[in-house]
């Protein structure tokens, strides 16, 4: 089975999954559940690749383990946040409702399907690796596994530090600048991006692996220009004002670096 046939299977599987998710979200009247489903979707797709891909079993199992661990942790992290605030809907989706007041769920159906297609495109490195029948992991794949472990632990640490900061009543209204957040305004996004770099490195151990560069490039675009940093910064400026502007002046936006004095 060719790489692109496998990618097509993944896209179709994600589309079917998002039809179910759209129905559930419609019943709950909260489109925000697509965020958790988007993360969980990669576990679903890598499972399809592991079962249908013609690649080496060990290579597929290692890849499936990495993708599933990352996908399930992130999806559950988002889901718990959604459940905490339900039935309140994320402001992004509330704004979309205002743009399509007559038939919002018709619009959301198309939006959910776009998310499914995006899952398929981002899964290209997975399809490349799952199609490689060569035995034994190559140096690029081992490097990918090592980077994945570092990035995964870094993302967990960043999320834990932010959660601990928010739990302390004394920090109400303050800006988290402790731990990793002292060196980056969005260390969680940085390590999330490194995870996708790790998936790309893993794909480089297979023929045509260079094509997998599309995934970290797309994630870098989304995280820094579209759905990641811009709305997060806007919300922080709205809620914390001058304190967050001062944090912006002295702290790197994405890549961890020494704070400016």
From TrEMBL:
* PROSITE patterns associated with the record: S5A_REDUCTASE
Q: Does the keyword Signal apply?
A: no
What is the superkingdom listed in this entry's lineage?
A: Bacteria
Report the GO terms under cellular component: membrane
Looking at the UniProt entry, the stretches that span the membrane are 6-25, 37-55, 61-83, 104-128, 140-158, 189-205
Short name of one Pfam family: DUF1295
Q: Which UniProt keywords apply?
A: Membrane, Transmembrane, Transmembrane helix
PANTHER family named in the record: 3-OXO-5-ALPHA-STEROID 4-DEHYDROGENASE, STEROID 5-ALPHA REDUCTASE C-TERMINAL DOMAIN-CONTAINING PROTEIN
Q: What is this protein called?
A: Steroid 5-alpha reductase family enzyme
């Amino acid at each position: 089975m060719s790489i692109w046939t496998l990618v097509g299977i993944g896209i179709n599987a994600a589309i079917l999954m998002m039809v179910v998710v759209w129905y559930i979200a419609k019943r709950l009247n909260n489109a925000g559940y697509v965020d958790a489903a988007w993360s969980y979707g990669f576990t679903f797709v890598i499972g399809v690749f592991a079962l249908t891909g013609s690649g080496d079993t060990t290579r597929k199992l290692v890849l499936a383990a990495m993708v599933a661990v990352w996908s399930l942790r992130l999806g559950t992290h988002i889901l718990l946040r959604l459940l905490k605030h339900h039935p309140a809907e994320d402001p992004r989706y509330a704004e979309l409702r205002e743009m399509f007041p007559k038939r919002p769920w018709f619009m959301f159906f198309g939006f959910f399907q776009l998310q499914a297609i995006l899952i398929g495109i981002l899964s290209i490195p997975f399809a490349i690796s799952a199609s490689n029948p060569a035995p034994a992991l190559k140096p690029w794949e081992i490097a990918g596994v090592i980077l994945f472990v570092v990035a995964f632990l870094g993302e967990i640490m960043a999320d834990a530090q932010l959660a601990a900061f928010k739990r302390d009543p004394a920090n109400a209204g303050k800006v988290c600048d402790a731990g990793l957040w002292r060196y980056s305004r969005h260390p969680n996004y940085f390590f999330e991006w490194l995870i996708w770099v790790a998936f790309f490195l893993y794909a480089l151990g297979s023929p045509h692996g260079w094509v997998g560069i599309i995934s970290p490039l797309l994630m870098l675009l989304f995280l820094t220009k579209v759905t990641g940093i811009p709305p997060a910064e806007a919300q922080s400026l709205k809620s914390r004002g001058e304190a967050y502007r001062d944090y912006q002046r002295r702290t790197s936006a994405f890549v961890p670096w020494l704070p400016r004095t």
